[in-house]
Structure formats: structure tokens, C-alpha cells
């Protein structure tokens, strides 16, 4: 007669099986993220190259406004908005994937260890929910930027104040990096990236909700650096690269809170320099 297999031994076999599958699922997830990252970087480079062919509009105050905020070549406002949000999402994928990939892997691993068969699909939906939040932020940013651009074109006084206002925004963004609010949300983001997750229900709504919650935390955590990017130019490759490195370092590198503070002091210095330079030109 065959001896019955003890339940604990069955559990051990299941654990060993999942441990054997973990490296393969991890390699697959990171491979997909790397491919998506490469595609979005290429698309961002192409978009920035096309925008560089358009001359910026000289404005009162000695600065030039990007044509990102204005309809060109007979395009309508909805078309310009859709184009901006599309480019924004592609940029955010390229910028946020280096720090998001470890979080998605932890989520995928938690689902697989809980025995969910659709872990890959749930992880994909979590990513969709995450970037949906960034897409909404991009839409709000476009409305604000387009409104501000129209105001600057109609009011020379507002245009002349832009260089100083930009410096004040950058200075404030650096100060925000030093606050307890930044530290709290950064700890939440680092905890999601560096520790395991509790078993989550394998439902599409739950996965999207998890991604949306993660995206909201991330947007608050990155508010200061996003403001710096908006001031420097959302289509400026150097600004995008610098912000990407800063976000990745404070999220995944050791001593992330210390790195965030160092970044804050650097941003404060840049803001002060911008204010002094703008004031000297008045």
C-alpha cells in the first residue's frame, strides 16, 4: 500500500516549487520592464527631437516659452492635450519604471506565493492603475500650463514675473524635499519596494486599486521633483534624466531619506541661483 503523504510535506513541495519558479518569473517581469523601458526611452527621444525643431516663443522678461502648451500646425486644443498626455505617459513610464519594477515584482511574488494563477495579469493591471494616476496628473498639468501660457501672452507683467516665479517654485520644491511629509511618503514607497506584501485578492479591481493607491503615494512623494521638471521643461532631456536618477536613488538606494535631503539642498541652491539671476536681469 502507498503511504499517505503528510499535509506539511505537500506544503513543503509547493513552497519548493514556487521557489523554483520565482527566478524565472522575476527574470520575465524584469525582461518585460526592460523592453518597455527601452521602447519608451526611444519614443521620448523621438518626441523631444520633434519638439526641438520648433522655435520657442520669446517672451517679456528675457525668457522663451515652449510650444508644448500651444496648438501648432492647425491642431485643435483637444488634439494638443491628447498629444501632451500621451507623451507625458510615455515619459513617466521611462522615468518611473526603474524604481517601480521592484515593487511590481514584490506584488507578483506575493500573488504567486498565495497560489493565484493570474499573477502576471494582476501585476499588469496594477501597473495600468499606477500609470493611470500619472496620466491624470499629466492632464491636470496641461490644463494648468496652457492656461498659464495664455495668461503670459496676454499680460506682459505676468510674463516678466515668470523667471523669478520659476526660481521660487524650484526653491520651494527643494524645501519640500526636507519636510516630514516627504519623508513619510518616501518611507511608504521604499517599504513597498524593499519588503514583501501581504497576500492580496486576485481580482482585477483589487489589482487596479492597488496600482492607483501606489500611484497616488508616488505622485505625492515625487511632487517636488515633478515641479522641478515642469519648471525646467517637461520635454528637456537633461531635466528628465536628472529627475529620473534622483527618484531612483531616493527610492532604491541605501539611506534613501538622506539622499532625498541631499537632493533637496541641491534643488534649493538651484532655486536661489535662478532667483538671483532673474533679479539681475530686471
Number of helices in the DSSP assignment: 9
- Low-confidence residue ranges: 10-20
Compute the number of strand runs. Answer: 2
Helix content estimate: over 70%
Oligomer: single chain
What is the chain-wise order of helices and strands? HEEHHHHHHHH
**What general outline do the C-alpha atoms trace?**
globular
Strand order of the main beta sheet, please? 1-2
Amount of beta strand:
under 5%
> Number of folding domains?
1
**For the CA atoms, what is the radius of gyration?**
23 Å
Average of the residue pLDDT scores: 83
Q: How far from one another are the termini?
A: 95 Å
The class by helix and strand makeup works out as: mainly alpha
Main sheet overview: 2 strands, antiparallel
Organism: Paraburkholderia strydomiana
Protein name: DUF2182 domain-containing protein
Keywords: Membrane, Transmembrane, Transmembrane helix
Pfam families: PpoB2 (PF09948)
What does this structure look like?
With 282 residues, the chain is mostly helical. The chain has one domain. Helices cover 80% and strands 2% of the residues. It contains nine helices and two strands. The protein has helices at 7-52, 77-113, 119-154, 156-176, 180-194, 204-221, 223-232, 237-252, 256-281, and strands spanning 57-59, 63-65. It has a two-stranded antiparallel ribbon. A hairpin with a 3-residue loop joins strand 1 (57-59) and strand 2 (63-65). Helix 1 (7-52) runs antiparallel to helix 2, helix 4 packs antiparallel against helix 9 and helix 5 packs across helix 6. The longest helix has 46 residues, at 7-52. It is globular.
